[in-house]
Structure formats: C-alpha cells, structure tokens
Amino acid sequence: MEFNLKKIIKALLLSTSEAVSIKDIQKVVQRYHAQSAAAVADPAEPAASDAPAASAAPVQEVIQDIIDQVPTLLTATQIREAVDALEAEMREANDSSRILQGPEGFRLVISPAYSDWVRLLRGEPRPQRLSPASLETLSIVAYRQPVTRPEMEAIRGVSVDSALTRLLELELVAVTGRAELPGRPLQYGTTDRFLDFTGLRSLGELPASDVLSPAQISEWIARATAPTAVGDADVGLPADSPAGPASAEGPAVT
C-alpha cells in the first residue's frame, strides 16, 4: 500500500469528533514505525506447513518496502501543506465535509451547504445570527483586547450591555482580568470558540485594520472618556463677551 499522507489525515479526522493536532499526527507516525520495527524484529511464528521457511522472505521484503515509504519524521509544514491540499480537493469536488483549522488542531466538519440537512436529522433549530450591534462589539473586543466596557462604549458611542451579554452567553467573549484603572473595571477578550466561529487559527490572522492605528484609537478613547471643558475662545467667541441687556422688556410706558 502506497503511503498517502492526505488520505491518512482524512482517516484520522473521520475517526474522532475531537480536534487532531499536528503533534497528534506526528505521534501516530512515530508509533507506526515503533510497532513496525518490533514486528520485523520479532515476527510471529509461521504455521506448520509444507512450504519452505524461505518463502516468508519475500513477504518480509514487501512489508519493509511499505515501512520505508513512511517518513520517520513529518514536519509541521508537511502536515499543513497536506491538509491545505486535502481541503482544496474537497472544495473543488464540492464535498459534504470541510476541514476546520482551529487553535487546537484540525477537525472534520459538515460543509455549510449541507448543514441544514444535518439540523433536520437532529431536529435542531437554525443558528441565530449575530445582530449588527453584537458584531460591532465583538470586533472591538477582537482588535482591542483586553478592553473594558467604557472603552467599548466610547468607540461605539452607545451602551454595549445587551450586545456584551449576548457575546458572553455564546462564549465568544470572556472576562480576562481587571484593568489598572480607578475602580478596577473588568477587561474582556475573545475565546477559542471565537476562533472556531471565525475560522481563524490565531488572532494574528485577523484582517489588518488600516483605518486607525492602536495608538490613535487609544488617544481617541482617552479624549472620549475624559472630555475637557470648552471655553468661549474654543468656539470662536470673544474671551470677554459684553453683558447682555439687563431686561428683555421694552421701555416702560408712561
């Protein structure tokens, strides 16, 4: 049997609902060689027959040829390239499965095109989409984490109570600590479930934002959360504006 890394990876993914990491795949290859070496060194005793003992030699040679095809060490790059190639083949063939690459490893999942059929089989309702307010809040947390509630509200300009509560319920966001600010407000950050939800392997794969730099956003938040008093001169009025008339009424009628 010819060694085919893509088919082996697919078989491993089909065998479990848990994520399979690169280290898991490397360990499988190491165990394969360990067990194969033991089998070659100590083969099982052949059954009594009239065939000469030398007839077992060609069989051992075939087994050794198969073992030699399997690399003793698979690098992370080789595994990722095999997974990417397998995923491309599945997409091109419009396969009902897809490979989801998350922070814990690779997982075989149902293609979105066929997800409705699986939900009908299980009697599950359609998943609810995030509201625009929740998506905006989630984006702020993803790019600014760790971030406090006042900072989120300073960026959005409105309260984030309902949106943040929804994100916490879905476990897309979690409390990560407290800020070194007066009152020690809670800080929030994204979770591993957020990476699975967005299909990212790490936060480093988030699309780059070229609108404002983190320093500019921090400066803007500081101004929004601690506004300064505005005087007459700031709005174009004279510093010492003359006093208005004492009374808005007209002259007394005599």
How does this structure look, described?
This protein is mainly alpha-helical. The protein has 2 domains: 5-44 and 56-120, Winged helix-like DNA-binding domain superfamily/Winged helix DNA-binding domain (Arc Repressor Mutant, subunit A, Orthogonal Bundle); 132-225, Arc Repressor Mutant, subunit A (Orthogonal Bundle), CATH 1.10.10. Helices cover 46% and strands 10% of the residues. The chain has helices at 5-14, 22-41, 56-69, 76-92, 115-122, 132-144, 149-156, 161-169, 192-198, 214-225, and strands at 97-102, 105-110, 147-148, 173-178, 186-190. A 3-stranded antiparallel β-sheet has the order 3-5-4. Strands 1-2 form a two-stranded antiparallel sheet. Helix 7 (149-156) crosses helix 10 (214-225). The longest helix is centred in the first third of the chain and has 20 residues, at 22-41. The protein is elongated and about 100 Å long. Residues 58-65 and 243-249 have low confidence and may be disordered.
Give the topology:
Blueprint lengths: L4 H10 L7 H20 L14 H14 L6 H17 L4 E6 L2 E6 L4 H8 L9 H13 L2 E2 H8 L4 H9 L3 E6 L7 E5 L1 H7 L15 H12 L29
Antiparallel strand pairs: 1-2, 3-5, 4-5
Helix pairs in contact: 1-4, 6-8, 7-10
Major β-sheet annotation: 3 strands, antiparallel
User: What is the distance, rounded to the nearest whole angstrom, between the alpha carbons of the first and last residues?
Assistant: 120 Å
CATH topology of the largest domain: Arc Repressor Mutant, subunit A
Radius of gyration: 33 Å
Subunit arrangement of the protein: single chain
Assign the CATH class of the largest domain: Mainly Alpha
Instruction: Tell me the helix content.
Output: 40-55%
Low-confidence stretches: 58-65, 243-249
* Beta fraction: 5-15%
Quote the average pLDDT. 78
Structural class: mainly alpha
* Spatial strand sequence of the major β-sheet: 3-5-4
Run of helices and strands: HHHHEEHHEHHEEHH
Question: What global shape is seen?
Answer: elongated
Supply the CATH superfamily name of the largest domain. Answer: Winged helix-like DNA-binding domain superfamily/Winged helix DNA-binding domain
Number of helical elements: 10
Total beta strands: 5
| Tally of separate domains | 2
CATH architecture of the largest domain: Orthogonal Bundle
